[in-house]
């Protein structure tokens, strides 16, 4: 079955030479593939994926801002993800258990051809995607353990009128993307800051702040309960907050009982 229109892809890797090598090898074994965007970090990969809607995303594992696995969790489920990695063997085993496509650096042309053959089957409906959000969550946890820990963000600066306000992250109920800004919602009100959600996610304490939607991060200590609305969507209620927050299917695995 022929592929509908030229297939499109995004390449994300913080090393320019690695991006160039993958682009050239893809051009050799899949000349019809159009590379519509290239990202230098995981946060940029999420933004470019949303802007260009490629059919495939080739994601390096070790990237600044967000790892490839964390970025994959925020990229649309309809985009097929392939991880490009020089990572430890235990991670490769996890990829194989989850039937997730991966390529080892330096990319081997024969292995790339096998990956391309599977992607073509996925794009024509001859194969079913097998990526599992639970496997992605497990890999993300493994990466946080393996990568050097960064001090968690404790304070946020926000311009309020002619004042510069310092906000303790402990006081924040949730963060939510709002165009080029992020909402910082507290019991006493909210402010806007010029820091995207993906940067906040990388800097906040992962034990205290959970992502529940592509655009929303909540303070776990503020959660009151969860329920389902008439559409069957999982909704979250927080302390001192009238606004209910939706938990997307991508992050519902955090609340398995529901």
Plain-language structure description:
- With 258 residues, the chain is of the alpha/beta class.
- It folds into two domains: 8-146, Rossmann fold (3-Layer(aba) Sandwich), CATH 3.40.50.2300; 155-255, OB fold (Dihydrolipoamide Acetyltransferase, E2P).
- It is 30% helix and 30% strand.
- It contains seven helices and 15 strands.
- It has helices spanning 16-29, 42-52, 68-74, 89-97, 109-123, 133-146, 197-203, and strands at 8-12, 34-39, 56-60, 80-85, 101-104, 155-160, 163-168, 174-178, 181-186, 189-193, 209-213, 216-219, 223-228, 234-238, 245-247.
- The strands form four sheets. The chain has a five-stranded parallel beta sheet with strand order 2-1-3-4-5, sandwiched between helices.
- Helix 2 (42-52) runs parallel beside helix 3 and helix 3 (68-74) runs antiparallel to helix 6 (133-146).
- The longest helix has 15 residues, at 109-123.
- The protein is elongated, with a radius of gyration of 20 Å.
- The model has no long low-confidence stretch (mean pLDDT 84).
Total of domains: 2
CATH T-level topology of the largest domain: Rossmann fold
Low-pLDDT regions: none
Number of strands: 15
Query: What are the secondary-structure elements, in order, as H or E?
Result: EHEHEHEHEHHEEEEEHEEEEE
Radius of gyration: 20 Å
Report the portion of residues in β strands: 25-35%
Mean pLDDT: 84
Quick synopsis:
This protein has 258 residues and is of the alpha/beta class.
Outline the fold blueprint.
Layout: E1 8-12, H1 16-29, E2 34-39, H2 42-52, E3 56-60, H3 68-74, E4 80-85, H4 89-97, E5 101-104, H5 109-123, H6 133-146, E6 155-160, E7 163-168, E8 174-178, E9 181-186, E10 189-193, H7 197-203, E11 209-213, E12 216-219, E13 223-228, E14 234-238, E15 245-247
Parallel strand pairs: 1-2, 1-3, 3-4, 4-5
Antiparallel strand pairs: 6-7, 8-9, 8-12, 9-10, 11-12, 13-14, 14-15
Helix pairs in contact: 2-3, 3-6
